[in-house]
Amino acid sequence: MTTFSDDRAADAAPGASEATRDRDEAFAQLLLSSHERLTGTPLCPSAPGDDPVHLLYGNASFGLLAHDTGPDPVFVYANRTAQRCFGYSWPEFVRLPSRLSAAAEGQDDRREFVRSVTERGYASGYRGLRIAKSDRRFWIEDVTMWNLVDTDGTHHGQAAVFRAWRDASETGAASLRL
Q1: Distance CA 64, CA 131 (A)
Q2: Which of 8, 18, 154, 175 is deepest in the core (most CB within 10 A)?
Q3: Could you read off the pLDDT of 78-131 as tens digits, one per residue?
Q4: Cβ-Cβ contacts under 8 Å for 11 (sequence gap 6 or more)
Q5: d(Cα 103, Cα 18) in Å, to the nearest integer?
Q6: Does residue 5 contact residue 68 with C-beta atoms inside 8 Å?
């Protein structure tokens, strides 16, 4: 069985190495299939023949993150959009405890959201205050988070997609997209 949490910490980002291609494709399929199975909707539009690794990692108009099942979960995935929003490189992201993505003032809200997803399988409509590597605060909006569960019922962690974001210093401003 492929494990994602133990070997995802490799410095090679998805699609960057032929040596990790099978693992990258399996993880992309886990993201896509578990989202659709739990929410009843596809994570993103795709066409037959689309490369799921590139679709989610390189071309996405949304931020996509995933963490493992550890007692203090660590990110195992962050697409390029999420990396730009948070200001971390792939090697930095996949060593970061996911709780550190939320600003101190947003920790209780984040913890409650994660708990509700753990209990219910997924939750949508979340908006949360996050903190970038530079200490810049920003809002992630239109968030859906779901449990990463494969077809055998094995739990691999949780993933979150955020479709809009904006600096916390902006009031009433339109959401930003990179």
Answers
A1: 16
A2: 8
A3: 999 999 999 999 999 999 999 999 988 889 999 999 999 999 999 999 999 999
A4: 90, 91
A5: 36
A6: yes
3 state DSSP class of 159: strand
Task: Say which amino acid occupies 91.
Answer: P
- With beta carbons less than 8 A apart as the criterion, state whether 158 and 114 touch: yes
Which residue, among 34, 58, 56, has the nearest Cα to 45 in the 3D structure?
56
Residue holding tokens 């490799």?
10
Largest Cα–Cα separation, the chain = 48
Report d(CA 152, CA 129) in Å as an integer.
34
Which element (helix H / strand E) includes 161? strand 155-167
Ramachandran area for residue 130 (φ above 0: left; ψ -120 to 50: alpha; else beta): beta
The secondary element (H helix, E strand) that includes residue 92 is helix 90-93
